[in-house]
Amino acid sequence: MRHLFAAAAFFCCSASVVSAEEQNSMNLGSIDEAGPENWEGMYLGVAGSAVDFSGTYKSFDLDRTIAADYQRSDSISGNALALLAGINWQADRLVYGLELSASKPNAEISYLENYLISAQPHRWSYSQKVSTIASIRGRVGYSFGETLVYGSAGAAFGKLTISGYDTSVDPSGGSISNWQKGWIFGFGVEQMLGGGWSTSLEYSQVKLDPLTHNPGYWYKPFRDTHEIELGEISIGLKYHF
């Protein structure tokens, strides 16, 4: 009888061990099946940025009789607020998609120069300002579960306004505005917060095509060129649908 009880006890213990191993195996299987966080779908968001705004101004005397060619570069810090909309697709841990953005930079470069034109002194003041930046970018990233590391690149469009006047000629001056195309690239990291929300930290660089014009409202023989770049570090908040 004691041998029967011992055999029964041994059988029960063995069954418990097997059951526990099977349960652990099932738990591990469910963990493996869970895989990476689901980043797929559409999202909307906002972002605030610290902006480094760089501008280069070049002026050329076309008939080479009035003044020497001139070039100056400067930069200023500012900020920007952006609206974001995008969509992600996912293949295992590879996440890719498209993102649209529109931002309002708050940065303007102003210059004040003294010139000699035809041996006469002139005081020239002008400014470079980008009032709007829009972009469409492709994004590719790798999911570490609730953390996404990504890079992006695409096309950018900026509304550039150039204003200026010569105090010795026309204090009211003049200005031109034009949409310039360019490119944008960046990289960042995004973290899921839960409830469909995520936050991101990103660096991006925007370079617009040069704006070249003949400033007829100053001196017709001149051709001016303006080159603009913006570097941004932004913090974003997004909601995923």
Structure, described:
The chain is mainly β. The protein has 2 domains: 1-34; 37-240, Porin. Helices cover 14% and strands 70% of the residues. The protein contains 1 helix and 10 strands; from the N terminus they run H-E-E-E-E-E-E-E-E-E-E. It has one helix at residues 2-34; strands at 41-61, 70-91, 94-106, 108-117, 120-143, 147-166, 170-194, 197-208, 211-213, 222-240. The protein has an 8-stranded antiparallel β-barrel. The longest helix is centred in the first third of the chain and has 33 residues, at 2-34.
List the helices and strands and how they pair.
Layout: H1 2-34, E1 41-61, E2 70-91, E3 94-106, E4 108-117, E5 120-143, E6 147-166, E7 170-194, E8 197-208, E9 211-213, E10 222-240
Antiparallel strand pairs: 1-2, 1-10, 2-3, 3-5, 4-5, 5-6, 6-7, 7-8, 8-10, 9-10
Gist?
The protein is mainly β and 241 residues long. The chain is built from one helix and ten strands.
CATH topology of the largest domain: Porin
Largest sheet: 8 strands, antiparallel, barrel
Q: Could you name the ranges where pLDDT drops below 50 across 5 or more consecutive residues?
A: 1-34
DSSP summary, beta strand count: 10
Q: What is the helix fraction of residues, given as a range?
A: 10-25%
Give the overall shape: elongated
The assigned CATH architecture of the largest domain is Beta Barrel
H and E order:
HEEEEEEEEEE
Evaluate the radius of gyration.
30 Å
Give the total of domains. Answer: 2
- How large is the share of residues in beta strands? over 45%
Q: What's the CATH first level of the largest domain? A: Mainly Beta
